[in-house]
Structure formats: structure tokens, C-alpha cells
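ARCHIVE CARD
Drawer: 12
Card no.: 0347
Subject: one protein chain, sequence and derived structure
Cross-reference: see card 0346
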Amino acid sequence: MDDTAKHGKAFEVAKIPQKAGAVETGKTSVTDYNPVNLDEEATGHEKDTWLDLLKHGWLSNAGSNLDAGLTSAAAQVGQVMLTLPHAVSLTGIRAGVPLIVSYTLVSMWTVHLLNALYLEYKRSKISTGEWYAGDGKARRKASQYFEVVGHTCGRWLGAVALVLTVFNLVGNGTAQIVAGAANTYSINPVLSKRGWTLVWGALSLLMTLVPSFRDFRLLNVIALAGTGFTAIYICVSAGVHGFQANAVNLAPYNFQSFFTGANVFLWAYGGHGVSFEIIDAMWKPSAYDWVYPLSYLFTFSIATPHSILVQLAYPKGNLTQDNVYGVLPKNGWMVASIIIMLIHQIIAYALYVTPIFFMWEKLVGTHYKPAYIRLPSRLPVALLLWFIAIAFPFYGLINSIIGALTGSMVSFILPALAYNLYYLRSAAARANAPKQPPRWTGGWTPVLVFNAFIIIYFTTIGFGIGGYASIKTFVDKIRTLGVFVDCYQCKKG
């Protein structure tokens, strides 16, 4: 008999051992929740139907598995689908497609690892009375990447995770502003790209008003509808144009360009910097490692086919333009697509930077304050991202550097390293793991060995060689164009 059945209801009062600093409510530690049940919020939603989901949660309190899937998909796609065709041109189709498939599968696996660590973290915090506030029900704070890694594997690794996730999310947020400016310029060059960056940076300030990851459902649906339309438009446009006979056989331009393109794949198919915030917002957090792969079916289906077709249709133009709109013919469909993608990009910006807002709130002490204090306190972070976007408008290169230096670490290396460090400690840790290795893996030994392979491969290929290639390209651009470029990659005439 499992613990939930033995205790009866999940909301049954349970006494929890206290440690120094634990929260108490009367004589009993944080009550009303069974510490063994890590999906306790799902108890109140067991009988929810699709009709219930349609009626409630569009603006707030959206914590279903569906909402987690929508958020994951919206965070994965967006402006990255506009630069993926260029990345395919840098690697070549024959090498690019296997890389995309491989990185997608490994990304799904490392999400399972992060999900397991989150459940360990939550179980520990509940047992010490630190998970809920004094009323025993309200959450204390949002759980984040660096906190989970730091708690399970030590402060030093938590500090590393903090630095990497900050750079990863800052880069992602900045890329949304740069992409929005570039896309707007392509249909309305009344301002330079730098001018449009000023406009989009100002608009991004509004996203400081989205409180948490449970408030994104309506925004996510709008964003995903837009990316779906754009993927179809790009595929049709490439097909109508016609395909070049030898485009599929084109090899990478050189060593540096190959790894620059491969790093974009690392970033596109490894957006784990927001994973813990998404898991934390779920009513049933233990389900995220199967919700995430399902969301990837949508991501993969709209982000991969159009990249291949654009390379087949426009091999020369695709090599020089890191935004797909730079090679497509300008017409009404393109304008509609850009407008829709602009909406998605401002939403994706909010998804990427909300975790940074949480970190900032904790730093300045507003995380536990009312919304009218907490939300305006985020403005300094939004202003900093705005400034970075103006200074470095190298759209595709930003994606590449994020992928190499932070994406490889946050999405692949750190999850495998933290998981191995935690579960190699003792047989007891493995035996008591709330999420055991799937049966098809063959048990703990194959899992730990495969994780070691992930660490070695992505440290060498992604972080090492890929990082060198991307940074070298970035430095070359700065030497050639400088910073605060007025109109990067603008078409002359």
C-alpha cells in the first residue's frame, strides 16, 4: 500500500519533523498537506474536465498539464524559428537534420533529470516546513534552477547554475527585442533597426506586469497560433518559389560556420532555463517529464520542416541572412506573418525574463510583497535588457553564443552532472528517489553512464569547440561593425 492510500486523503493533517528555522502553525508543523504527496494541488483538480479548463484559468491560476505544455511550446518556438533556416545553411542539411533530431531527444531526457531533482527538492522542503507559508497553504516563493541545483548538489554548483541561467535568460530576452526590431524593419523601414529596437524595448516594459507562470494561458495560445501560421506560410512560400537542384548537398562553409549553426540548434532545442518555473506552476509537477516531450511534437513539427525547405529554395540568400524574412519575397502574407510573430516575440520575452524578475525580486526583497510593489520593482531588469539589445543587434550570433556557452550548460551538462552527483552519493538516495529511472533504461547504471557521456560530449563539442566558434564570429562582427550598429544586415537600395 502506498503512503497516499495509507494516509487516506492528500490533505490530511500530518506532523512533520522540525528543523531550525522551519515554519510552525501552532503545535503542528505546516499542516493540511501530506508531505509524501508531491502532487498535492492536483487533488483538487482530479475531476476537472476539458470544459472546466475552457471555463477557467485563461488569465490566472492555470496550473494544468495542458498549461505546462503550452508554456513549454511557446518558450521553445518563436523568433528561433526565424533563425533556424540560417543555422541549417551553416551546417548543411545532411549534418543539420541529424543534429536537430539528436539534440531534441537528449533535451527530452535531461528534462526528466531536472524533474527528478525538483521532486527531491520539494520533498525536502516540505519535510522541513519550508515549502509553505505560515498558513500551511500559500507558497513561500517561486522555485528556480539555481535553488534546486544548489539544494541537491551544494552551493558551489548552485552558484554556477545561477550565473549560467542569468546569462541564458538575458540572452534569450535580448534576442526577442532584437528580432522584433528586425522583423518590424523588414515591413516598415521608416526607422532604422536601432530605432525599432528602441520601440520594442519600450513595449517589452509592459511584460513586467505578468505576475507568474500561472498567468500565461491566453498569451500562450495567441503565441502558438501565430507560430503555427508562420510555419505554414514559410513552407508554402518556399514551395511556390521552387527548390534548387543541388541545395541538399551543400556542405558547411567552414569549420567555424558549422559550429556556429550547431550552437543555434543547442539553444533552439534546449530551453531548460525556464523549466523549474514551469514545473513549479503545475498542479501535478511529477508529470512534467512526459508533458514536455508532447509539447516538443508541436515545436519540432513547426520548427524543422520550414528550415529544410527554405534552405532548399534559397540556399545562397539563406547563408547570408540570419533572419528568414530577409530571404522571403515581401507580400501581404509576409506582412501578416511578421505582425503575428511580433506578438509572439513579446510574449516569449515575458516567458524568458520572468525567472530573472523572480531573482531580482528576491535580491531586492520585493518577492513577498503585494503585486503593486513587486511588479514595478522589475523595471531595472527590463531596462538593462533593452540597453543590451541596442548595443548588440547581432541576432543570429546572439542565439549561437547563448546555445554554446549557456544553452549547452543549462540544458544538457548541468542536468546530467547534478543528477549524477546527487544519486551517486548512496544507494539509499537511489532507492528513495521519488522518480525512478524509466524501465526501458535498464536501471541506474545505464542512466548514470549515459549522463556521463552527455557531460563529456556537450562540454567538448558544445561548450568548448562551439563556444570558441561563436565567440570568434561575434568578435569578428564587432571589429567590422562596432557596437550600437544602426542597421545590421539591412538590404541596400
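Annotation on reverse: The chain has one domain: 38-481. The chain has 20 helices and two strands.
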